[in-house]
From TrEMBL:
This is Intercellular adhesion molecule 5. The gene is ICAM5_0. InterPro entries: ICAM_VCAM (IPR047012), Ig-like_dom (IPR007110), Ig-like_dom_sf (IPR036179), Ig-like_fold (IPR013783), Ig_sub (IPR003599), Ig_sub2 (IPR003598). GO terms for cellular component: plasma membrane. The keyword Transport does not apply. One of its GO terms (biological process) is cell adhesion. Keywords: Membrane, Transmembrane, Transmembrane helix. It comes from Eudyptes chrysocome (Western rockhopper penguin). Coiled coil: none annotated.
């Protein structure tokens, strides 16, 4: 009998795992009886089920890395898991999880009666990283031109995006908030644009400086200032010239002056008494 159950008939049949257990064997005749207890063990090949070895795993970056997979079998099987594609065992429990751990692993359970295989897919979640901003077409924007600032970040789950930027009425955000477009750039649009990527594991920010180029205004202002200075200079020079060449009345030897290298014929008129010369005089 098995565990005090009904007696079993003699004979042979195919063994199943349900046959394992303690049996009581009793021999009886008219002179008495003998009893012996026997433990029956049934050995069988390994198997790996969903309960002891889920096919989908979710790890978090920075936590201890351990891929445990339980299998049934008798004798108890040895289980080893290796990442497909590189033939390496997963790291033991002490190292921390990194994004490189993501992938598909194959777990093999083995004993003296055979082996069983099961694939396990591991996904690694991590906080936002590698936040980058790009200004199109350029971070140096001409006044009146249009530009956009795009934000990209790695992360799992997919990050959401938030912005801190110069306030202006000509801003338009994308539906997923990953970019902001600026039409007809003005002075209010220059400054620091900061994008923050966030998921349930953390957040990270990145920034870029946008400059609105108003050099043509500066050039016009400079030209205006230069014109004003030039006009003042010309006026001063003209005043000095008029002052230095003002007519000095007196009698001069025209013949000598006419032939002199220092004399200049500034003005000549026809009179009844002949020609009259205007002479630029130099101080003796």
């Amino acid at each position: 009998t098995r565990d005090g159950g009904a007696p079993r008939a003699r004979g042979s049949r195919a063994i199943s795992r349900a046959d394992a257990g303690r049996y009581i064997c009793r021999a009886t005749n008219k002179h008495g009886s003998a009893v012996r207890s026997i433990v029956v063990t049934v050995e069988y090949e390994p198997s790996i089920g969903e309960t002891g070895c889920p096919a989908q795993r979710l790890w978090v970056e920075g936590t201890p890395a351990e891929l445990a997979c339980a299998a049934s079998g008798n004798p108890p099987p040895h289980v080893a898991c290796a990442k497909l594609g590189d033939g390496q065992d997963p790291p033991p429990a002490s190292p921390n999880v990194t994004r490189a751990h993501a992938g598909t692993y194959q777990c093999r359970a083995t004993n003296t009666h055979g082996s069983a295989l099961r694939n396990v897919t591991v996904a690694v979640e991590y906080s936002p990283a590698a936040v980058s901003l790009r200004v199109l077409p350029s971070a140096n924007v001409s006044r009146g031109a249009s530009f956009s600032v795009e934000c990209r970040a790695e992360g799992l789950p997919t990050p959401t995006y938030g912005w801190a930027l110069p306030p202006a009425p000509n801003l338009r955000f994308a539906a997923d908030n990953r970019s902001v477009a600026v039409a007809s750039a003005a002075a209010a649009n220059r400054g620091l644009y900061t994008c923050t990527a966030t998921n349930r594991h953390g957040r990270r920010a990145g920034s870029v400086m946008v400059r609105v180029d108003e050099s043509w205004l500066v050039l016009l202002a400079s030209l205006g200032s230069l014109g004003a200075v030039t006009a003042v200079g010309l006026a001063a020079a003209g005043g000095y010239y008029l002052k230095s060449t003002a007519c000095k009345k007196g009698e001069y030897n025209v013949r000598d002056a006419e032939g002199s290298s220092e004399a200049a014929c500034l003005h000549r008129q026809r009179h009844d008494r002949g020609e009259v010369y205007g002479i630029q005089l130099t101080q003796p």
